[in-house]
Specification:
With about 325 residues, this protein is of the alpha/beta class. It has 2 domains: about 1-140 and about 300-330, Quinone Oxidoreductase, Chain A, domain 1 (Alpha-Beta Complex), CATH 3.90.180; about 145-280, NAD(P)-binding Rossmann-like Domain (Rossmann fold). The protein has helices at about 40-45, 135, 140-155, 170-185, 195-200, 215-225, 240-245, 265-270, 285-300, 315-320, and strands spanning about 1-5, 15-20, 30-40, 65-70, 85, 90, 105, 115-120, 125, 160-165, 185-190, 205-210, 225-230, 245-255, 275-280, 305-310, 330. The strands form 4 sheets. Strands 3, 4, 5, 8, 9, 16 and 17 form a 7-stranded mixed β-sheet that branches. Strand 14 (about 245-255), helix 8 and strand 15 (about 275-280) form a beta-alpha-beta unit. The radius of gyration is 20 Å and the shape is globular. The protein starts with a strand and ends with a strand.
C-alpha cells in the first residue's frame, strides 16, 4: 500500500492522505516512486469541482519527479532506478496545432503525482537535468510546458522581443520570466503586490506595474513604449488593457482565465491594431522534450516558495489559496 492525496467528493473536497494499492505497470508503462510534486491552479480548480469531466474521487497532482521502480513489457530495463521528471500531457494527438478530443492531463481522471507511486507511459518520462534537485524538477512540468509553447510556438518570441508577463509570482509567470531573462529578452511584469514586482526586477525584469491601479496601462506604456508580446493567465475585465499596451502587429497569448471572462471585449481595437490573440494549453510531447533541453542549456533553476511533507498537504493548499506565494509550493514524498 502507498500514501496518496485524495479529493473525495464535491461535498468533501479538502485534501486528505489515504492509503491505496501501489499501481502495477502495464505494457509500455513505468511506475515512478515520486520524491517531490508541486501544486498548480489546476489542482485547486479540480478540488473545487471547477474542471471539465470531473470524476470523483480524485488522486490529484500533475507535476512530479522521482525514481523509476518498476516497468511493464516493452520498456527498456535501463530505465529502472533512474531519476526522472514526468511529462503530464496525455494523448495530445497527431495535430501539433491543438490537442485531440481524448487529451487529458495527469491528475484527473488519471491518478496523479501527489502519491508515493504513480504509473505513466514510459514515453512520458525524461532524465532530470543534472543541476536540479527532485524538488526543483517537480516545479517544471505544467509551468515549463505552458511557458515553452506560449513563448516559442505561439508567440515566436526572439531576443529582440519585448514581453509583458501578467500576475508575476505564480509558477507559469515566474518560469516565463526566467526563460526570457536567460535569453536576454526585455521583460515587464504586473502584479497586485509591489513586493512581487521588486522581486521580479531582482530576477531580471526591466520594470513592472500594479494592475490594481486603474491607470496601470498608461504607466506601462510610459515605461515600455508598448510590448510585442503579452503572456496572460488572468483574463477578466483588465484584458482590454492588454490590447492597449500591445504594439500594432503584436501577440497576446492566453493560457488561463483565473479572473473569468472578458466583458465588453474591445474587438475594434484588436483588429485595428492587427493584434494576434492566441490561446494555448500545455504542450505537445515534443515541445516538452525541447523545454527540458532549454532548461539544461540555460541552467534554469525553478523558484520554490515553500516545501511541505505530504502529510501536511492541507497546509500547503491553504498557503496556495492565499495567493501570497512567490514561486512554487512543493510537496516532498518519501
Amino acid at each position: 500500500m502507498m500514501n496518496v492525496v485524495c479529493f473525495q467528493s464535491i461535498d468533501n473536497p479538502n485534501p486528505a492522505v489515504i492509503t491505496a494499492p501501489i499501481p502495477t505497470p502495464k505494457s509500455n508503462e513505468v511506475v515512478v516512486n515520486i520524491k517531490a510534486a508541486s501544486i498548480n491552479h489546476r489542482d485547486e480548480w479540480i478540488r473545487k469541482g471547477q474542471y471539465a469531466r470531473m470524476q470523483w474521487p480524485v488522486f490529484p497532482g500533475s507535476d512530479g519527479a522521482g525514481i523509476v521502480t518498476s516497468i511493464g513489457l516493452n520498456v527498456d530495463p535501463s530505465f529502472l532506478g533512474k531519476p526522472v521528471i514526468i511529462d503530464p500531457t496525455l494523448v495530445w494527438g497527431d495535430n501539433p496545432l491543438a490537442q485531440s478530443d481524448n487529451f487529458s492531463v495527469l491528475g484527473m481522471p488519471t491518478h496523479g503525482t501527489f502519491a508515493e507511486y504513480v504509473v505513466v507511459p514510459f514515453t512520458h518520462i525524461h532524465k532530470i537535468p543534472s543541476h536540479l534537485t527532485f524538488e526543483q524538477a517537480a516545479c517544471l512540468p505544467i509551468a515549463g510546458a505552458t511557458v515553452y509553447r506560449s513563448l516559442f510556438t505561439q508567440a515566436n518570441v526572439t531576443k529582440n522581443s519585448s514581453v509583458l508577463i501578467t500576475g508575476i509570482g505564480g509558477g507559469v509567470a515566474l518560469t516565463a520570466l526566467q526563460f526570457l531573462v536567460a535569453m536576454g529578452v526585455k521583460v515587464f511584469v504586473s502584479s497586485s503586490s509591489q513586493q512581487k514586482i521588486d522581486k521580479a526586477i531582482d530576477l531580471g525584469a526591466f520594470g513592472g506595474v500594479l494592475y490594481t491601479d486603474k491607470e496601470w496601462h498608461k504607466q506601462l506604456l510610459s515605461l515600455s513604449g508598448g510590448v510585442d508580446v503579452v503572456i496572460d493567465g488572468a483574463g477578466g475585465d483588465s484584458f482590454n488593457s492588454l490590447i492597449t499596451v500591445t504594439k500594432p502587429g503584436g501577440t497576446i497569448v492566453s493560457y488561463g482565465a483565473t479572473n473569468g471572462e472578458v466583458s465588453n471585449f474591445a474587438l475594434p481595437k484588436l483588429f485595428w491594431k492587427q493584434i494576434r490573440l492566441q490561446g494555448t494549453t500545455m504542450s505537445t510531447n515534443e515541445e516538452f522534450a525541447q523545454m527540458i533541453s532549454f532548461v539544461n542549456e540555460y541552467s534554469i533553476v525553478p523558484i520554490i516558495h515553500s516545501v511541505f511533507p505530504l502529510e501536511k498537504v492541507e497546509e500547503a493548499f491553504t498557503e496556495f489559496q492565499s495567493g501570497s506565494h512567490f514561486g512554487k509550493i512543493v510537496l516532498t514524498i518519501s
